[in-house]
Structures are given as C-alpha cells and as structure tokens.
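Issue: ligand-bound run for zinc ion - logging full I/O for the record.

Environment: standard queue, default settings, no custom constraints.

Inputs:
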Amino acid sequence: MTEQAQNLLPCPFCGSNRVAVHFKRAARKEGYQAMCLNCKVGQTHVMHSTVERSAAAWNARAPVTAADGCSLSQLFVRPANHQVPA
Ligand SMILES: [Zn+2]
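Outputs:
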C-alpha cells in the first residue's frame, strides 16, 4: 500500500518531489516508511505507526543546501581506519 502523504518535503538527496510513504510489513514489525521514488533513499530501520509520523520524520531531515555550507560529499562519514594519502 502506498499513501501519497500530504506535505512531504522534496528528497534531500536528489531534490525529487516523488516522495511517498509506504506501509511495510516485516517478520516482527510493520509500519510506515517514507521513501524517495527517484533515488530510493528512505527510512529503512525505523517504522512509524502512522503516515503522519513517518511524514514528520521525513520532513525533520534538513534539506541539503548550499546555505548550510555543507556539500553532499560531506555527509559521508570517513571510516576510522581511512588513510589520507600524504
Ligand atoms: Zn531522492
């Protein structure tokens, strides 16, 4: 089941407006998860009890903008054992 939740912000990664909330059922739990239908990024570990809660969690993610002084590449965390070439 897919619910076109109201007021979902565009995807913070690709900017697409094709964001939807799905109802997902797994072995031990079920719930709603928001996901970008374009780049497939979405809520994977947390399931929300309602469409509204899922949408609120999606919208709480700050969009990636130049004004943040943060580029997309900075969102990737470098592993602790990563060696930077001298
Ligand atoms: Zn996306």
